[in-house]
Design a protein that fits this description.
It contains four helices and two strands. It has a two-stranded antiparallel ribbon with strand order 1-2. The radius of gyration is 25 Å and the shape is rod-shaped.
């Protein structure tokens, strides 16, 4: 209801009448919505993936963040495993 009101361009009184609710009900939900913290913004970063030639004792996969955090794997991970690992990482 709050999103519909904000997009409607109507006054609180006109919107409440259109929706068939008391203006105090609309005011309550507008207040509740204003007290909620904003959801955190999502940051997407481009990642380049390359599979190096296998070397004895080397890493099959290495990922390095812009901050220098490295994740090294002896075996290549599937996309699902890599997603689980990165989402759990605090990079």
């Amino acid at each position: 209801m709050v999103e519909r009101f904000q997009q409607s361009g109507l006054t609180r009184k006109a919107f409440a009448a259109q929706e068939g609710v008391a203006r105090s009900t609309l005011d309550f939900w507008l207040y509740v919505a204003s007290q909620r913290p904003s959801p955190p913004s999502v940051l997407f970063r481009e990642v380049q993936v390359s599979l190096p030639a296998a070397q004895p004792g080397g890493w099959a996969m290495e990922i390095e963040s812009a901050d220098g955090v490295k994740i090294r794997c002896r075996e290549a991970l599937s996309a699902a495993e890599l997603t689980r690992l990165v989402r759990g990482a605090k990079c």
